[in-house]
Amino acid sequence: MNRIDLTIEICGLSGDGTIAAGGLLNEAMSRAGFSALAFDSYPAEIRGFGRCVTRSRFGFDRQIALENQTNLLISLDDEQSLSRLPFLAADAVVLFDNHPPSPVAEGKSIAGHARPAMSLFGAPFRDLAAAASGSAKGRNLAALGVLAGLLNLPVDAFRERIGKKFKSKGEKVAAGNIRSFDAGLEYVLKTYPDRLRPLPVPAAPAGQAEKVLWSGNVAIGEGALAAGLKNYFGYPITPATPIMEYLAARLPAKGGRVLQVEDEISAIGAVLGSFYTGARAMTATSGPGFALMTELITQAVSAESPAVIVDAQRGGPSTGLPTKTEQSDLLAAVFGGPGDTPRIVIAPTDVTECYHLTARAFPLAEKYQTPVIVLTDFYLDNRVENIERPSISADAVADALLKPAPDQAGSYHRYQVTPSGISPRALPGTPGFQHNITGLEHDERGVPDFSPGNHQKMSDKRDRKIQGALADLDPPEEYGDPGPLDVGVVAWGSTFGSALDAVQSARDQGLKVGCLKITALFPYHEDRIQAFMDRSKTILIPELNHSGQLNTLIGHLGRGRIVRLNQSTGIPLYPSTILGKIHELIGEDRS
Amino acid sequence: MSAPKFIIIGNGPAGLEAAITLKEKAPDARLTIISRDPHESYRPKLLPDYIAGQIDRSALMARPFSWYDQIGARLRVGQTAVRLDLHAREVLLDHHERLAFDGLILAVGGQPRIPEPYWVFRDLMLPLKTMADADQWIDRLKDVDDVLIVGGDLTGFAVVRALLALNKKVRFVFGEEALWPTRPTPEIFRQAADRLIRRGVEVVPGKLRRIVRETDGALAVTTTEAQTSAGLVGAFFGLAPDVAFLAESGLAIERGVLVDEHLYAGFPGVYAAGDCAQVYHPQIRDYWVSIGYENARALGRIAALNLAGGLERVNVAAESIFDDDGIRVNTSWWMEFGS
User: Is the pLDDT of residue B335 over 50?
Assistant: First the structure.
């Protein structure tokens, strides 16, 4: 069977239906059996301005990262698409509207810029849609029809998804949009019969598990629902808002509540209050909102209150780059805030892990009575993968509250110092278990106590507790050769997929390289990380930040050469970039 | 003053030669070449050899895409000029993009010509002009043992040679349409027919009347004097200049673009060359089209020289002889019969 590795990009102006077309493409291709990974980027500004781009990578094997080169571009707006030309493969296919409302000046058409080795397929998207449905709005669907015809994709999957997507707008709209799709399909078959490029379609293996096409944000929402989330509090912010939107549509039906509060301070405060009463709660935000939450997060550390906080990172600092990706909140998530405030920070690396780590954040928060920060980023939140529908056992998300023994009634010490650092926690209102909680340093009873010995003791307790959480946190996973490595790549978050893709390519080329995935960022498994670093001649740490924050956090464990690969462009770190660095490092060693 | 902007429409032998010459004589000019074909320029005269499997696809290619970068020319492939506005001095492309020019060379070549009486059989006949045509020939010949050639232009003779090399049975309706646009004498006809027969080709007498596809897929062919059949019918009636898009341009169009002996089309900076040009010969006081690869190249070069400021005349000497294993035809543009 031919190996398929196809990256398709749709580019248009905000309002062209670019994102909608990308979504339909992903759904149809997924339904046809392809593995998919897709990522949209859109402008921070309001509708009507700016460029929208969807990029989808399809194949038979599981897709773990996007690459920087696009094999096929659908241009819904040539002026916008011109900026994408540098990212097209030398032999890329370009589909474009060859009949704009009036002739354009030289250079305004993408056809004037495409390299000769590229293949141009012009089709009158607007005209086809207008003739088929009475409106040129469906030009994005006509373009999908052209694509489907060109690649011989299963058209019924497209028709079915289009019908479903537009059903809410009425049968007439849905039918018109399907006709627009069919018009594009018919056009390409008739116009380019000698240039069609049929794509092999994967055979559906028997007994294949149900697949879902989820974004990272959807997976986070599903994970929270699986964990029995009761209350969600939030304030809208890109790229976390879809989590609130998703839960708003689903949580009430499960007996929970979603409340949009006035700001992020209220959101974290409400989460702490809810969890304090025993009701699982969550909030999701991004860098600027996370900064506002910081004081109350440290209060939760001090008061040992559970909380689940998703920090969906975007480009910073401050309001930064609202619709661009970055991994620059790591140190803020681990250390942010006044005082020594150990807390649990975990970072999924793909959509499936978004589900599992979010679900598991709740019992972790309960058991260790601490804020658990699920650290994602725009590239992970907004990416779409078709994955086997994840599930988690009831045991894995069971109530993990360690309640005090009944015989402690009347003599209950909320912050009892224990070998594990975990103090039994009574829910408020439990007779005989009245207690204080405070952000002030306190003794075992919760009474403020600023004496030197007490502060030392309670700081030790809190640190011991969090370090003990390692037992419940996934150890780093190694990929590649088990022996000595010329280059060992250590990666986290959304960058891991690109790192693994690069390492797989390097191994295919016969290079001795490996990759280490870290999902537990604090506390972290020092021994496992160090063991991997020790067998790597050079350690490469690729990150989407400028300062090398993972290197700052764990670099001290490395006893060999550590090389950082940092990118602060707001766009994902692609496998080819990491592979290039691997080649460079191995080349240096050999020269 | 900015560098002049020249456009060549066509990337065949005439257009390519014009590009080479322009970059040589006007190196500062901004040059754009528009090619309808979605691939590299190729040598059409080698298509029969390609069909015969005597050369591979790469050997057909005249210039790689990288060559255009090297000479600083912009090549637009898979794009077609659909209108010429001589007042605005703009070319409109099929995707509705307007290209302005200071100088223009029309080297659009021709399309396989099918005489009007045979239009109804068009879909049953296979021409050979493009790479796609050649690929279709190769594909169809896998299942076919006998081929009928109708018409009989220079490409047709070369295809006969290719088919014989492939051990195919070849029949030839060698009628009055043969050797168009030259007008050979009956003696030339007879000699050519003899050559074909000596090569093992069955010459079918008469003029094509009818082609019918039988239920078994074979084609039943009727001429005014005989009946025969074939698995595949090749159509070789020469090329018709591909100038329909110029109809409203204001250029003088007859069979092709009428140009003077300098290939000048009557509008400043506008020239035509190759199969699409109909060149005036002051001595015979008439226009004629040329055929063949070498003539196209020669005209492309002259058009470019003149666009670059020269005043070259086309060479009226009969210098281009097509010789296909004894079938010799003078392809120079005003000679009306073979040598």
Answer: no
Beta-carbon contacts of A381 under 8 Å, excluding residues fewer than 6 positions away, are: A215, A216, A217, A220, A239, A240, A242, A243, A312, A354
Residue B334: its pLDDT value, please? 44
Q: Which helix (H) or strand (E) holds A234?
A: strand A231-234
Query: What is the CATH topology of the domain spanning A213-397?
Result: Rossmann fold (3.40.50)
Interface test with B, best of A99, A108, A109 (most B CBs within 10 A): A109
The answer to whether B77 contacts chain A (CB < 8 Å) is: yes
User: Does this complex have an ipTM over 0.85?
Assistant: no
A494-504 mean pLDDT: 97
**Is B79 touching A (CB cutoff 8 A)?**
yes
**Looking at A44-48, A507-511, B184-188, which range is the least confident one?**
A44-48
- A96 contacts in chain B (CB < 8 Å): 95
Residue extents of the structural domains in chain A: 5-191, 213-397, 477-590
pLDDT at B2: 80
Report yes or no: B17 and B296 within 8 Å, Cβ to Cβ. yes
Is residue B38 less than 8 Å (CB to CB) from chain A? yes
Q: Measured between alpha carbons, how far is A158 from A22 in angstroms, rounded to an integer?
A: 12
The answer to whether residue B87 neighbours chain A at the CB level (below 8 Å) is no
Say what percent of chain B tops pLDDT 90.
65
Looking at beta carbons, which residues of chain B come within 8 Å of A81?
Answer: none
Q: Which residues of A touch B94 (CB under 8 A)?
A: 98, 122
pLDDT tens digits, B11-70: 999 999 999 999 999 999 999 999 998 888 999 889 999 999 999 999 999 999 999 999
One-character DSSP codes across A182-227: HHHHHHHHHH-TTS--PPP-PPPPTTPPPEEEEEHHHHHHHHHHHT
User: Could you give the CA distance from residue B5 to residue B24 in angstroms, rounded to a whole number?
Assistant: 15
Mean pLDDT, rounded, for A231-248: 97
Same fold, A213-397 and A477-590: yes
Q: Which residue of A has its CA nearest to B136?
A: A194
Q: How far is A179 from chain B (nearest CA, A)?
A: 23
CB pairs under 8 A between A and B: 53
Q: Report the pLDDT averaged over residues A362-388.
A: 97
Report whether pLDDT(A154) > 50.
yes
Residues of B in contact with A115 (CB under 8 A): 65
Q: Which fold has domain A477-590?
A: Rossmann fold (3.40.50)
Which residues of chain B make contact with A116, given a CB cutoff of 8 A? 40, 65, 68, 75-77
Residue among A440, A275, A439 at smallest CA distance from A368: A275
pLDDT in tens, B68-80: 999 999 999 999 9
Residues of A with CB under 8 A from a CB of B: 96, 98-100, 102-106, 108-109, 111-112, 115-117, 119-120, 122, 194-195
CATH topology of domain A5-191: Pyruvate-ferredoxin Oxidoreductase; domain 3 (3.40.920)
Percentage with pLDDT > 70 across chain A:
97
* Euclidean distance between CA atoms A573 and A550, whole angstroms: 15
3-state secondary structure at position A154 = coil
- Domains recognised in chain B with CATH numbers: 5-111+241-322 (3.50.50.60), 114-237 (3.50.50.60)
